[in-house]
Amino acid sequence: MLNISLVNELNYEDFISRFGNVVEHCSICAAAIWRNRPFRDVRHLHQEICSFLDLLPDTGKEGVLRLHPDLAGRLAELGSLTQESTAEQKAAGLDTMTPGEKQLLRETNIKYREKFGFPFVICARQNKKEAILKGIVERLEHSAAEELNIGIEEVKKICLLRLLSIVIDDKSHM
Ligand SMILES: NC(=O)N[C@H]1NC(=O)NC1=O
């Protein structure tokens, strides 16, 4: 774990190697905010990434969502997820789904992607498998604009938890 002073001392390459995947496969997020050092604390770091995501045009937001792997999808089956995503999917209990649950998630993931053109994204660490299955069925009813917005908000939650696993959350600096 790093404290914020050490984070602020990292050169660009080291910053990217530490923070390049706080948004899945989107090292551009870390690359974009590096210039905003010094960061006051981990929340400030998170806020900068959130602002960067909010400023993206819809096509960029869709691209960010598209870089996320399906929950319990093909990459999970192949063991080819990023380390972060593997741990998150496990925390939600997605590795212990019954065959029926797996089938439901697979089918709804396909329907979701067909309807919206990007994958269903949810912060797995904050949801157990039951909530994820309920969530995807409910979210299938939304409009694309609503889902783009909800998906990016979930990316921000995933990002905060990833940041908190790298940087000490020193509230005394706040
Ligand atoms: N599809 C999807 O939500 N994937 C993500 N969710 C999460 O918590 N980690 C992921 O990779």
From TrEMBL:
Coiled-coil parts of chain: none
GO biological process: allantoin metabolic process; purine nucleobase metabolic process; urate catabolic process
Principal location class: other
Protein name listed in UniProt: 2-oxo-4-hydroxy-4-carboxy-5-ureidoimidazoline decarboxylase
UniProt-listed Gene3D superfamilies: Oxo-4-hydroxy-4-carboxy-5-ureidoimidazoline decarboxylase
Keyword field: Decarboxylase, Lyase, Peroxisome, Purine metabolism
Function (record text): Catalyzes the stereoselective decarboxylation of 2-oxo-4-hydroxy-4-carboxy-5-ureidoimidazoline (OHCU) to (S)-allantoin.
Organism, scientific name: Daphnia pulex (Water flea)
Signal sequence region: none
GO-annotated cellular components: peroxisome
Catalytic activity as recorded in UniProt: 5-hydroxy-2-oxo-4-ureido-2,5-dihydro-1H-imidazole-5-carboxylate + H(+) = (S)-allantoin + CO2
